[in-house]
Specification:
The chain is an alpha+beta fold. The protein has one domain: Dodecin subunit-like, CATH 3.30.1660. It has one helix and three strands. A hairpin with a 2-residue loop joins β2 and β3. The chain is elongated and about 50 Å long.
């Protein structure tokens, strides 16, 4: 039986929601081992002068605890 843990993380990118997700996983993997999945629970964007300037995601990262 595997023991799994979920950690909530916020991330942002100037490029896209996908890039914000990848950045979060890359940063989390520096200290978390055995990451199994990522669930994007929320997305938002910052708008300035009629243009999207920043993409934000709220993630739930699931990893196995050994």
């Amino acid at each position: 039986m595997a023991i799994m843990k979920v950690l909530e993380i916020l991330s942002n990118s100037n490029t896209s929601w996908e890039d914000a997700t990848k950045k979060a996983v890359k940063e989390a993997s520096k200290t978390l081992k055995n990451i199994r999945s990522v669930y994007v629970s929320d997305q938002s964007a910052v708008v300035k002068d009629g243009e999207v300037t920043e993409f934000r995601v709220n993630l739930k990262i699931t990893f196995e605890v050994r």
